[in-house]
Amino acid sequence: MTARGSIAALMTCMAAAGAAAPAVAGGVPVGVPLDAVEGALGVDAPRLGTGVPLPVVGAIEPPVHHQGDMLPTPVLPAIPVGTELGDTLVSSPVPNLLGSKETDGEGSLDAPATTLLARSPGAVLGSPLTMPDASNSGLPNVVAPKLGVIGPELTGAPTALLGLR
């Protein structure tokens, strides 16, 4: 194998991994096995299928230095995290809905996939000293320190559909 062929194979693998990464970031579909409930209790078990979310950490906003401040803002940056809540379907038989065998039905709860974005709390801290002051022989002045908290955020619009047939 030549060096040129090795580099081409390596670049192909890297391109495939880069293309597959966003598809994997959504979630992993999982079927929950409840078959043992039927054998143990003698009733029809519900069926449950959902997706395990895979959180993806986003880019952290870099701290900004302002003129006249000794510390950057924010001191503790907020970390964004995004994930996709997978499609969830729960269905269960509903026997004797209206009192007779002919009215047996099935109830279901379906929650379609949705995107959920979260941002961790952050902190802003003001310096207890000012910049060097010429009127104070070049020494900084003492000021009351300031402390602020950047609140956490949670953004999403999960929905669910309840059905009976």
Spell out the helices and strands N to C.
Answer: HEHEEEEEEEEEEEE
**What Rg is obtained from the alpha carbons, in whole angstroms?**
28 Å
Q: Which sheet architecture does the biggest sheet show? A: 5 strands, antiparallel
Count of beta strands: 13
Number of helices: 2
Helix fraction bin: 10-25%
What structural class do you assign from the helix and strand content?
Answer: alpha+beta
Shape: rod-shaped
Q: Distance N terminus to C terminus?
A: 63 Å
Low-confidence residue ranges: 17-25
The percent range for strand residues is 35-45%
Q: What topology, given as strand order, has the largest sheet?
A: 1-2-5-6-13
Query: What is the residue-mean pLDDT, rounded to a whole number?
Result: 79
Describe the structure.
This protein is an alpha+beta fold. Mean pLDDT is 79; it is low at 17-25. The chain has 2 helices and 13 strands. The strands form 4 sheets. A 5-stranded antiparallel beta sheet has the order 1-2-5-6-13, with no helix packed on it. Strands 3-4-7-12 form a 4-stranded antiparallel beta sheet, with no helix packed on it. A two-stranded antiparallel ribbon has the order 8-11. 18% of the residues lie in helices and 39% in strands.
